[in-house]
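Thanks for the sequence, V.! I ran Cytochrome bc1 complex Rieske iron-sulfur subunit right away. Repeating your input here for the record:
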Amino acid sequence: MNDHETTEPGQTGHGAALVPAAADGQETLPASLVTDPDHFANPGLPPHVHRAADDNPAAARRAERQVATMFGLSMLFTLVFLVSYFAIPDEATFFLPGIGRAKTQNVVLGLSLGFAIFLIGIGAVHWAKTLMSDVEMVEERHAQASTLEQRAKAVATVNEGVASTQVNRRPLIKYSLGGALGLFALPLGLQVAGSLGPVNVEELKHTIWDPKDNGGKPIRLMRDPEMTPIRLDEVTNGSVFHVMPETLQKYLDEGKGVLEAKAKAAVILMRLDPDLITVPKARDWGVDGVLAYSKICTHVGCAVGLYEQQTHHLLCPCHQSTFDVTQDCKVIFGPARRPLPQLKITVDDAGYLVAPQGFMEPVGPSFWERAR
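Predicted structure:
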């Protein structure tokens, strides 16, 4: 502090207008920096910049045509979706670099639907950027409750907003937008009506483990995805195999219906001490402690692929439904409401594991069989 500067008790600073220090000795701000919190300087609005379409009718018409073109292209892609849904065969595929072989219908449906909604979006954005009102507006906060006059004013404001979009003045945009949105709703209805129903419950119950699909002969258990047969002596205590039926090979050779067949036929095979199996039926349907169960969770159909060797529990990773293999895959935890269906297995003359019959109950989610 300089010799000519003095400070009164309770004040701080170097000769400036000061505010008394707080009672606890903490310094406070100078009086020149203290402002009234109820009043702030109004910064105002920046100068409004007019767009080309605001002053030039030709530019406005050009923007209108551009927006309508985007909506029109959206309608075209929606029509491509609808035609492709019926015209492209389910088995048609092509090679996609970096991905592999893909179903032609899936790719076309995805791209056409994506472009349809994308064009509606960018058309709406271009419409707002070029033709809708962009005048800056300020609305002061006020009490939540409104009077009748204020409500009427709000309705008038909405009507003014609709008018500012110029949708009534530009029928080309109005009708092209209506057509794009109207057509875009058709694929959604088509997916619901054509893909989700009606449901044939008997078809859902049938799997390719049925010996009828193999000329009445027992079906060999095959490693997935190698599709090689499994010998009984290859299944050691605590080991786990992911299994598909031998009849799947026909679908693989033909290249169609593979995913549908695998979705219901997936099986998990494991071996444990036969003395640990507490349910006689489960023991009888296995071979020397080797048991086969559906891999499809009875909750919502996820793949039950996690086997705890020490506890002999099967765990569904989706919602943690847990099945006890020693109790015929009884549900001991989680949202599943019934055990995993067991596949009866035996050994053929060559020592390979085979299934002499299909599943005796529906595989997958319990809603296929509501009474249980």
